[in-house]
Amino acid sequence: xxxxxxxxxxxxxxxxxxxxxxxxxxxxxxxxxxxxxxxxxxxxxxxxxxxxxxxxxxxxxxxxxxxxxxxxxxxxxxxxxxxxxxxxxxxxxxxxxxxxxxxxxxxxxxxxxxxxxxxxxxxxxxxxxxxxxxxxxxxxxxxxxxxxxxxxxxxxxxxxxxxxxxxxxxxxxxxxxxxxxxxxxxxxxxxxxxxxxxxxxxxxxxxxxxxxxxxxxxxxxxxxxxxxx
Length: 229
Description:
Blueprint: H1 3-11, E1 17-19, E2 24-26, E3 34-40, E4 43-48, E5 54-60, E6 65-66, E7 79-82, E8 86-92, H2 94-102, H3 104-130, H4 133-150, E9 158-159, H5 165-172, H6 176-188, E10 192-195, E11 198-201, H7 204-211
Antiparallel strand pairs: 1-8, 2-7, 3-6, 3-8, 4-5, 4-7, 9-11, 10-11
Helix pairs in contact: 2-3, 4-5, 4-6, 4-7, 5-6
């Protein structure tokens, strides 16, 4: 990025706000005129269904920009809650208009990230309707690790998901009991090992094949982006 682009991005993070684990940052259907960048920690977005159950639609990590719906709607479509202690940076939606006019390449990259997230969400929704519970759990583990890598979190063959089994289940349409059963099954088959809150991927290649997992951060075609100035 050019120095001017770096400065423009830094201005989006000049009002850091600390929130504690479990704190609700935005309520579903609440008025919202701000967008946010995650600076530290982990958050999740969810909606409440008619039967009172919770559907997690997105996990957020450092570097993620969220609440883009504020650009087109006056209310938040989902609730955003901190999964861990976190730092977020709110900024006015008018700053996005400034990026569009003064830094079109940065604005284009925001569109790119938004499309990556859309495809990841599509993958998860498709999985809810067509894959087994075991595959859903395996895919979620791989997806979380992929997001952590993109956020610059150091992960290798082991990582800490930082989620309860209930939270995992709410993301993939399973009960906490069912999630635990599938995790034990993956352990019994030598694919993973759980220890001290961490998940060790013992046979990642086989896990990827079994889950049919596609890393949506790979294979990007960004040749169309305008040059930096």
